[in-house]
Amino acid sequence: MSPKLPIIGNLHLLGNMPHESLHILAKKYGPIMFLQLGQVPTIVISSAILAKEALTTFDLALSNRPRIFSAKHLFYNCTDMAFSPYGAYWRNIRKICILEVLSAKRVQSFGFARQEEVANLVHRVAESYPSPTNLSHMLGLYANNLLCRIAFGKDFSHGGDHVRHNFQKLLEEYQMLLGGFSIGDFFPSMEFLHKFTGMESRLKDTFRRFDQFFDEILEEHRNPENRKDHKDLVDVLLEIQKHGDPETPLTTDNIKAIILDMFAAGTDTNFITLDWTMTELIMNPQVLRKAQAEVRSIVGERRSVSETDLSHLHYMRAVVKETFRLHPQLQYYSLENPWRK
């Protein structure tokens, strides 16, 4: 590895596009590298074989996550599934998410919401014709509206609650803070600097607004007069809180943290995949024509694609998988916490 600089270590090697810089470094130094990123010693793996070994053979040794600065403030002191330390609590909420929140039966139960939101998206695109369409913006709204319906039982795309909470801007601020640069992640001993940069006050303000919003949502769901025929994710989590394992109880803050996880995992990732898929199809007209022909042959005279058609759209599934390969939605956070003793 090239020599480290004082204080910053190898941070200067990353540049504005860290993933591209790491790719270039891996071609020069090999599939596994050691970098000193500020005060944080970091192992970079750029080989599928080595990555698989790290995540399977050595999964228990690498089963923790670093407590990044933004996550501590936004995710109720890292009590969500993504950033919670490995242990009994993490295993319990992982079980809850797999068996209750993300089970195949639960996912299928929200098929009506997906169908309605797709129809709304198509309608918005059609309405914008012949003016230029900002499809990225529309796809982002689609992803957020769908997740709100699944999590809360209603969308916040317009009117009442949306205006009062300015929910769309709140989500954008949350996503920007979660994915932005934080000096405390690379220099843990210098976290106090966030008091001067404004980062800490922004995190606290965003957390306060989300917390107030979640309090209102939970109060509304606990009110017997607001019972619905179809349970949303908040209903499911409140039921688990009431009847769950007393040895690992689910607190109200835990529920809020899990809901935030759903937004972290379910908004940008869906939107980015859809956006890149459309971009790649437009950039590759021959692929677009083949995908269109397959859809028309399966759907026939019907006006729209249904979820039952998806298993027959083999070429379209290949297109989506190729999009995953070309444009990963998220960087992978190192599991091992180098500061753990």
Write up this protein.
The chain has about 350 residues and is mainly α. Helix content is about 60%, strand content about 5%. It contains 17 helices and two strands. It has helices at about 20-30, 50-55, 70-75, 90-100, 105-110, 110-130, 135-150, 160-165, 165-180, 185, 195, 200-220, 235-245, 250-265, 270-285, 285-300, 315-325; strands at about 30-35, 40-45. A two-stranded antiparallel ribbon has the order 1-2. β1 (about 30-35) and β2 form a beta hairpin. α9 packs across α12 (about 200-220), α15 crosses α17 (about 315-325) and α16 packs antiparallel against α17 (about 315-325). The protein is globular, with a radius of gyration of 22 Å.
**How far apart are the first and last residues' alpha carbons, in Å?**
26 Å
Shape: globular
Query: In CATH, what is the class of the largest domain?
Result: Mainly Alpha
For the biggest β-sheet, the strand order reads 1-2
Count of alpha and pi helical runs: 17
Portion of residues in helices?
Answer: 55-70%
CATH topology name of the largest domain: Cytochrome p450
| Number of structural domains | 3
| CATH homologous superfamily (4th level) name of the largest domain | Cytochrome P450
In CATH terms, what is the architecture of the largest domain?
Orthogonal Bundle
Order of helices and strands: HEEHHHHHHHHHHHHHHHH
Radius of gyration: 22 Å
Largest sheet, in brief, is: 2 strands, antiparallel
Broad structural category: mainly alpha
- Low-confidence stretches at least 5 residues in length (pLDDT < 50)? 332-341
> Kindly state the mean pLDDT as a whole number?
85
Strand content: under 5%
Quantity of strands, as a count: 2
